[in-house]
Design a protein that fits this description.
Helix content is 39%, strand content 21%. The protein is of the alpha/beta class and 263 residues long.
């Protein structure tokens, strides 16, 4: 099994769509038609959840006029958030067929199919023409990608000149990661953590100019503490969250935002 197949297998377990719809129903909503907020962030599996998505989108300048590519779109939570809260038109690409199917179904039920669409595929070979998008967003995806140079080169190809790429990943601050599982990988075999400098170097080689960086570590620690106290987000087991929290507290890992503009 190749790396991409292993990554897809890691995420594609359990009936994701049913679990999401159960959350809506438990909250008194109608599973056939509901607002994205009824999912309570269970469809956004990244540190900070919906609040982090809002922060990243705001800093990236995403608006109702923005055509956005969501790289590694998962269950579609980020894409729907960008459409609902910012008015953007979004297309998501993800490796995991189960996630893509769930993303399409949930998007239909939330009435956002006119703004948000999804494709199953690899972000190493994007199925789009040149300059198709105004912005791209990659949220907690790079940890599973060894060839970040190729991802950023492909993203540069499909962005218009002046387009923005917002990256929000867990990055390596120093030392070696020894404690697995982590939320994105059961073992080191599918975990490709790198420091921020590796990202910025790869972005520069792809033709991007880095505008700014941010490291919301305190917010990340608080989010994981709250997640563990409340039972954790959908599909992420406590040992993985516990190991990530320990790595944050030790300074080994941190959530990092990078914003870059295509020259």
């Amino acid at each position: 099994m190749g790396t991409e197949e292993s990554v897809a297998a890691h995420y594609g377990r359990g009936n994701v769509e049913k679990q999401l719809l159960d959350i809506v129903e438990a909250g008194g909503g109608n599973p056939e038609a509901f607002a994205p907020a009824k999912l309570h962030g269970a469809d956004q599996l990244h540190v900070g959840g919906a609040d982090a998505t809002t922060r990243v989108a705001t800093r990236a300048g995403i608006s109702h006029a923005t055509r956005v590519l969501d790289l590694g779109s998962g269950m579609g939570g980020v894409a729907r958030h960008l459409a609902q809260e910012f008015g953007a038109t979004v297309h998501g690409v993800d490796l995991t067929p189960e996630f893509v199917a769930a993303a399409r179904s949930i998007t239909e039920r939330t009435g956002l199919s006119g703004q948000v669409t999804f494709s199953a595929g690899s972000i190493l070979a994007l199925p789009f023409g040149d300059s198709d998008f105004d912005a791209a967003i990659m949220v907690h995806v790079g940890m599973n990608i060894q060839d970040k140079d190729k991802v950023f080169a492909e993203t540069a190809r499909v962005l218009r000149p002046g387009g923005v790429l917002a990256v929000y990943d867990i990055m390596l601050m120093g030392g070696d990661v020894e404690q697995y599982p982590l939320p994105w990988a059961a073992t080191a075999a599918t975990s490709f953590l790198q420091p921020p400098l590796a990202y910025t170097d790869a972005l520069a080689q792809a033709g991007f100019l880095v505008d700014q960086e941010a490291k919301p570590l305190a917010e990340g620690i608080a989010f994981l503490e709250n997640a563990l106290a409340s039972g954790g987000p959908l599909g992420v087991e406590a040992p993985a969250l516990t190991n990530l929290l320990a790595a944050f507290r030790s300074g080994l890992l941190a959530p990092v935002e990078i914003y870059a503009r295509l020259l």
